[in-house]
Amino acid sequence: MMPVVQLLRAALKHAGNRPPRCVVQTTSAAHGVRTHASSCTDGDKPKVLITGGLGQLGVGLAKSLRRRFGKFNVILSDIRKPPNHVYKNGPFIFSDILDYKNLRQIVVNNNISWLVHYSAVLSAVGEHNVALAKEVNITGFHNILDIATEHGLRVFVPSTISALGPSSPKDPTPDLCVQRPRTIYGVSKVHAELMGEYYHQRYGLDFRCLRYPGIISADSQPGGGTTDYAVQIFHAAVKSGQFECNLRSDTRLPMMYIDDCIRATMEFLEAPEDALVSRTYNINAMSFTPQDLTREIQKVLSDFKVTYNVDPVRQAIADSWPKALEDSAARQDWGWRHEYNLPELVQTMLTHITLGNKLASAF
Ligand SMILES: NC(=O)c1ccc[n+]([C@@H]2O[C@H](COP(=O)([O-])OP(=O)(O)OC[C@H]3O[C@@H](n4cnc5c(N)ncnc54)[C@H](O)[C@@H]3O)[C@@H](O)[C@H]2O)c1
Ligand SMILES: C[C@@H](O)[C@H](N)C(=O)O
């Protein structure tokens, strides 16, 4: 038999490992399903599920969330096999957002309280495969909404500059304005913004949405968007000293360094409910053209050369997007501040990629 002291220790350890305590109450029915709002009480750590976690943004966000809430409180998921370093660094599971039953099982079995919904088909790939974009970005999103409502989750869904169109004010684009995007990706993001806001009013869903600019990262590759050139250009500059750009040299778009994007997401996720006047906010950092970016890179790598071979699909998409986002509400309501402008972005990206390449070739 276990001695009393050992039993007490085991009980205390068990209490320390208990999943977050949740208040469960029944609310009205969504889609005929009885819903349970289980919001975590103050002081409890959330249990977070990230969908589409193996894309450009998920692994970086998981790393920051794990630092804050603990390794085992953040589960990455995707339909692809993770690379070894991701698999070894914390919980990873298969989850196809189109499989409602499996998604629900994951949420229930892991006592999920926050859902970060990153699965998506981005702008350029979406235009080449509208059926897939419709399925993943709209049908998949419906599954997320219903499961989040049914289980009282806080749900974060990124929107994008893509949710704006040629008739939107462009420089800067306010939070509230005409939205008539010309891509299936953009249409699906407007749908997500509106459905999330509707579910918030109708069922009390804690829906949170940020319109991200194009995101630039050194360690992860972009997944088929129109702003991808702004990541690829850095790798080409370091590797070969030349780059063929698929957008016109004067195409000005809003962009953000990944660290700012991740910090914004974490701060917004943790913002108190009563601070949020809106459910969807613009966040802005910098805007530049391929020509501006080339000049800034040439300050460090003076021999770097860029040529242009414009992709008409991507160019038409970029021409319909904002040049800058107006984000004063995010700054006022929950304290958003960006840290990286163009010079810091270029220094940081070149340093990371050069160091990464040196380390890789040393092994
Ligand atoms: N990266 C950017 O510049 C940017 C800008 C604005 C908004 N966003 C938004 O942020 C989110 C994350 O973007 P990202 O750049 O990491 O995207 P990404 O394209 O790099 O990754 C998307 C991930 O979704 C996964 N996925 C596809 N179908 C799925 C399915 N049926 N079930 C589960 N997962 C599936 C893919 O395997 C992929 O890993 C997306 O919603 C995107 O719209 C990104
Ligand atoms: C802007 C963003 O949504 C994505 N990087 C795209 O270009 O599609």
Automatic annotation (TrEMBL):
Residues 48-283 form the NAD-dependent epimerase/dehydratase domain. GO terms for biological process: L-threonine catabolic process. GO terms for molecular function: L-threonine 3-dehydrogenase activity. SUPFAM superfamilies: NAD(P)-binding Rossmann-fold domains. Pfam families: Epimerase (PF01370). It is an enzyme of class 1 (oxidoreductase). Its EC number is 1.1.1.103. InterPro entries: Epimerase_deHydtase, NAD(P)-bd_dom_sf, NAD(P)_epim/dehydratase. It catalyses: L-threonine + NAD(+) = (2S)-2-amino-3-oxobutanoate + NADH + H(+). Pathway: Amino-acid degradation; L-threonine degradation via oxydo-reductase pathway; glycine from L-threonine: step 1/2. Belongs to the NAD(P)-dependent epimerase/dehydratase family. PANTHER family: L-THREONINE 3-DEHYDROGENASE, L-THREONINE 3-DEHYDROGENASE, MITOCHONDRIAL. Catalyzes the NAD(+)-dependent oxidation of L-threonine to 2-amino-3-ketobutyrate, mediating L-threonine catabolism. This is L-threonine 3-dehydrogenase, mitochondrial.
